[in-house]
User: Fold these one by one.
Assistant:
Number 1:
Amino acid sequence: MNFKQALLRFLTDLDAIAEKHPEITDIMVKEQISESVIYYVVHRQENGLRPIQYGMVSKEANEAVARSVNRFAETAWNDAHYKLLAASERLELLQDFSVQTDNGSTVTDYLILNDTDADAINSIPEQRFKDLDATGFAELTGKPSKPRYNIRVLYASLVITLLIIAGIIYMVLTFSNKS
């Protein structure tokens, strides 16, 4: 099976899931599917684990998506030509809009391919590898992830806030002096 055939099978699998579980086209689900596809199919990162959580409503739906993503990762890498390509060329193949299912679905119906840098997808959140408990939430272990701050944005926000406060104080003082 070549890559185009693997992509068509993947999209067809997702169409079948969408018939029972329309939430597969929700933005957050699409982002999580995309993250896994970019990580495992485009950049061929392997750590022995694959995500089982995709933000679907039920465990059954998450398992169906996980099976589809895993099968796609395996079958894509069975194409000898695909293995020889650079990640950017593999991404181009993934963005082939001529590959359409019988329902007319293309890769954009299930994936969001706007952040495809390997460093941007260097780790998939730990909770996506956890099974859901009875309440529908993944049991989290370990310490919480470190929040990411952009110091330039924080600095700009602080400066803007201080300028607004200074403007308000100036207006209050100017108004009270005229009274």
Note: Residues 132-146 have pLDDT under 50 and may be disordered.
Number 2:
Amino acid sequence: MAAIFLIPISVKVKSKAQTCKKKFNNCSLNETVITKSNILQCDFSGADFIGTVFKTGNFMKNTLENIQWNLTSFIEMQLQDITFTGTFNECTFENCGFYTANFENATLINTFFKNNRKFKRVKFINCKVDKITYAFLKNNLADLKGLLSWNDKTILVWKPMSYKIHSNIFSLINNQY
């Protein structure tokens, strides 16, 4: 059962609240539902977001290091000036707007991306993904450069194939993917 949670320094659950420049280091927001909130410039280093739902609001310029991202959902959120790191296991990003959002040194397992806006601008830097997550990213028209498979080999490197005419025969030269 999700908790209705009130953080005394102005992040209110189920209300229109705004938080600026607050520290929530190592805090537990386990199974918390946060709706209609503007969460700005907060430091969530070491926080526990297991089962947390962020719905209808803004999540901008926050510090997100060593976060536990399991069963975390972002629904109808504006994600701006954010770098996501860590392991995302069974997380959801649905109907979100991404503005200068990056995933760096992240592992994404069974993580779903559905109906997101501005997703082409999201950068994936040295990220590992499974096949299901890859399919969702591709379907959302993500820039797939920087994605790695589980065995640390790049799963998508686009190299154009070259064609040569030799003795009146077309030969296709495959540039080993």
Note: The mean pLDDT is 78.
Number 3:
Amino acid sequence: MVYVLPGPIATASYAIAGRLKYVFPEDKFPFRWLPAQMTKTVWETLIQRSPSVNVQWAGFRRAENSAALIGMALWNIYLPVKNNRDAGDLLLGDKFGLGALAVAQVAMAALHGMSLFQNGQRSGTLVVTDCQNVVFEERDDPGVMVPCVTVAQHGMQIHVADVMTADIFDPAMPAGSTIAWIINGATTTDITGTT
């Protein structure tokens, strides 16, 4: 049987989530994974839960001059805050609520330079590539700011051995071998296939 493993992108995602949950305790900052597409419904849910920590995988870009699968993995971290008093309080915070600058800076400081590991070996370092206040163009949300911190792992390498216990593309692989997926640490039989 061949097992499909989480691989380096999922492993890095878990590490990012763990670091964010450490600096933003979940009892005060609910944590959520976001879908790739920022729809109006996703946006409305995002700004209703404030303050909160919301992580979105933004993609993988293969390095231009590399024949191997080496590149940069990207994540967006959305950190909505609310304060209906005035724009300065929303930006800087006051006794009624956190400011957008504070949550953005904590996220940047927590993630920039963070070492990532795959199979017990250091696989790279996270870098903050961008931080900006995002808005949803179809909405006017006074009293809400959503800083978005973008982080990247440069030089991420993805090998067959990182995502499968055997190379199913190897001609020596026996025909009819079963493929099972490991999701959140458990093997599932709901998603199987054969070679």
Note: The chain has five helices and ten strands.
Number 4:
Amino acid sequence: MRCLMLLFLSGVMLSLLNAQTLKLKEILNDEQLFVDLLHGFSVQLKRGWSVKVIVNSIVIKNEQDCYIQVRGVRHNGDLKQVAQRWFSERQMMETGNARFAFRQTGQGIVIVGEGLGFPHFLSPMAAVNAGLMGIPLPSDFREVTVILPGKAMALV
């Protein structure tokens, strides 16, 4: 099984400015600080993980095709409406035999999906690279999406 974890943070747009700074301490610790001054965020990455901005989200990916997506969406206080919009978007992107379960918690809404196809929207060049190299894309992904409310924005 492959994993896909979706979270959502703030309305980040455009492409990524690769403003990385490596220090000896970070190299020895097997971690590096990634700083994106254009979009106004930084993240501490373990070896084998990379980060980029795709449309309005921050996507962190490792070499085993595990993804963390961070994005923010506007809401009027109704998290169920946010979940319904997310589910509509997700259904348009899904090609596998996906199954989803939703649960409301005290902190927000948790959505678990399994039986998902490869997340092409998170790695658009993967199909091209796989075709050129003759390597099939991984399939049978799982997903955990968390919708956390803020005043006017929700982390999805």
Note: The chain has three helices and twelve strands.
